[in-house]
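A common beginner's mistake is to predict each chain separately and then try to dock the pieces by hand. The better habit, illustrated here, is to supply every component at once so that their relative placement is modeled jointly.
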Amino acid sequence: MTVDYEVQEMLPEPHEFHELELNMGPQHPSTHGVLRLLLTLDSEVILKAQPHIGYLHRSFEKFAEGMTYTQFLPYTDRLDYVSAITNEFGYCLAAEKLAGIEVPRRAQYLRVIAAELQRIASHLLFVATFGNDLAAVTVFLYGFRDRERVIDILDSLSGQRLTYHYLRLGGVMADAVPGLDRKVLDLVDYLIPRLDELDELFTNNVIFRRRTENVGILTAEQALDFGVSGPNLRGSGVAWDVRKADPYSSYQDFEFDVPTGRQGDCFDRYAVRIEEMRQSLRILKQAVEGLPEGEIRTKVSRNLKPPAGEAYAHVEGARGDVGFFLISDGSTNPYRLKIRGPSFIHTMALETILKGWKIADVIAVLGSIDIVLGEVDR
Amino acid sequence: MTDLFQRLWGHFFGPKVSLVLAYLTDAVAILVFILLTVMFLIWLERKVAARFQNRLGPMRVGRPHGWLQSVADVLKLLLKEDVIPTKADRWVFTLAPIVVVVPAILIWVCIPFSRNLVAKDLNIGIFYIISLASLGVLGIIMGGWAANNKYTLIGGLRSAAQMISYEIPLVLSVVAVVVLAGTMDMNGLVARQAPYRWFVFWVPVGPLAFLIYLTAAVAETNRVPFDLPEAESELVSGFHTEYSGMKFGFFFLAEFTNMFAVSAIATTLFLGGWLGPGNLGPLWFLIKTYAIVFFIMWLRWTLPRVRGDQLMKLAWKVLLPSSLVVLFLASVMVAVGFGGARG
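With all components supplied together, the output reads:
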């Protein structure tokens, strides 16, 4: 057996007790998909945690080179399947930038509505699974119940419930259904009391606080070094949001706050997401009330041939900064596509966060960091 | 109970034979009662959980409200393949579920459903119950060790640490009541609470001891928020990860029997057992017991799980000192003339 000397150096001090190596995953009830964590334990304390990935690799980046720009769009839904719209959003922006396509304002607003609905749905799923990981099974079912409402609206927009394919190059697939504003406003009225109820049941629960506060701390410097983004970065106290830092698709029209945490522990990462849902509801309200009239789509040729060149566009996904880098050689297919999946980066940060905590904390950290393996492996 | 059965059998057999037959009848009656109760409790738990979570729970097997669901589950467990992992220690692996289930059932010998409805009213009843209850943990360690799996090993060790830690405050809170009552006889304990001087009302010892007992009992029975030994999100399924079929069923049976037993003991010690208006002994006993069972289920479907070190901190830094204080207070109460042994 060959010895990897670099890995050898990273091992902790030789320990006087026998260390236990524990494979957590890929088949394990709480690794959220097919993540495999190789834990080196001293009784229940983690000396080392190595994430092993690749169980869901589907080589989407390579696929993109073999199909047209339009054909690749539904594949982006399957990256982070919990937050499909934001992936489409990033890819559309990159392709439109490359080809120089202008998107009508109404379509921009509809995209914002879809993306914010998606963010809420994704965060509700986060709350649900986080609760389940900490054995609060009731929270799990409440989360799914509320997510259903959001998905119903997305369903009425796109006809799908998980992989929507609602955004198209140059606009969106279909116009707002009649009564969309009513549905969205009803959702706002429904969800705000539900979020308060969640605070009562879960957020302010003593046991929950003890499990998550001061646990699994990711400092702002560490987060920035790793390139962590999204709610995890804001949980560490850095107020950076693509929607504010690099506004796209009329986000500058909307008023919303960027919530931040204090120290980057599990609770901060959770609380930031809860507050983000409230902010998303604010954006939704403004978007449906100010929805402009007009076209929903610019005509784009099915065999789109963007001029040779490259373009990068990124959006604030539910999990962080989702980026798409496209290179065109002037033909109908992309020459190369690179996807920046925030979950991948967050998975890599796990090793640093987990060191020194207990097995029970692995679950809290994994839950709070909210990764989707479809995006990690691509 | 034994006397009654002995008299019944006495019509057909001699006195010695009928005594043996009476004990056998007791055993069968207890077993049948426990099995039926556990099946009902499993169904109840699922229904209660469903209510808490805006669902319906089992609805299909048996109408109305899926009352046959547990029967179907038991049949499924009986028909399942019984897998023993190749690397497991076969003997210990097979013995473990039995070691868990037998004490859980033996406890019921001493629990009074009413003045006469008790299999054997030992004069050290509560002592007998407590000592048997502490045997169950052996089976859990055996199961965790024998399966030869890291998850089960950690689950077994956690369980040992937890159950031993929580047994101390549990026993101390029971001892406080025994000091107040001046007897260890289960029926005697109930009699001391007649008619409405239930121990839970004996301020300050009663309510404090009740609280300590309930907390420790939830931990003893490995239920949320103290269900670390089988924390499914961490340890897959804890000590019984590798068990299948009826061996798994035995662990499940023991778990629900224990939950019902700790509730029954709480009823007897603190809530006046079968006492209540009218001559309805067993009915009052069951009502009170099910109230506590419901409370334990309520906790499970509301709270998240605590972490191991927090669990230990609670046991050793909060429950143990306060149970010692309660025991001291109980002694003081007896010394100044409340309670204590009669005559």
